[in-house]
Amino acid sequence: xxxxxxxxxxxxxxxxxxxxxxxxxxxxxxxxxxxxxxxxxxxxxxxxxxxxxxxxxxxxxxxxxxxxxxxxxxxxxxxxxxxxxxxxxxxxxxxxxxxxxxxxxxxxxxxxxxxxxxxxxxxxxxxxxxxxxxxxxxxxxxxxxxxxxxxxxxxxxxxxxxxxxxxxxxxxxxxxxxxxxxxxxxxxxxxxxxxxxxxxxxxxxxxxxxxxxxxxxxxxxxxxxxxxxxxxxxxxxxxxxxxxxxxxxxx
Length: 251
Description:
Elements: H1 2-22, H2 24-34, H3 43-59, H4 70-93, H5 96-122, H6 127-147, H7 150-159, H8 167-186, H9 190-213, H10 216-250
């Protein structure tokens, strides 16, 4: 019963994670359509790539015991493909400065993963110590992944607009944290559960900010339109006065 429940939660975690990883498709379709990255940051996607690489390695039989963490492998393997696609699109349309920044961060991520994989495979000779080592590195990466949107959160607070913080990304981050926290606890694997103790409150924070500022973009537009309408009315009155003065002068 316990294993079935764990696998069921793992399957739901896979589904929610897939939606989380796929959520930026809407964002990057906008980037492709406008041929510009605008104010979007690539950092969350590079950090997510790091997380996917590490946890795919964590779930493989090299680190874990046989295929005990197969759900972890499947979703993070798919996540690698999606995140690489998003990063490639960003690099294609980003300005030179953005490309350099993204390239440097991505290079650091690849180096960290490579060193982690080599150390765990050749310096540790049992699954327990390999899991602990890779799990700790993965924990740091996961905390970074959940903390990366704080850059966007700061932007939302400053601009009072949620334009660059998609709702689906925040919602699926919250849902995924709950499910993988449950999966880690059911598996008695604190290294899988602990990152989500950070992700859960951050997801709640993002959803709270979205609810608070989601109407900002709607209310600002009518105000701007009203101001323009008032300006047009003032200009019309001024023109009417000038016309009347000219007529009076001629008469």
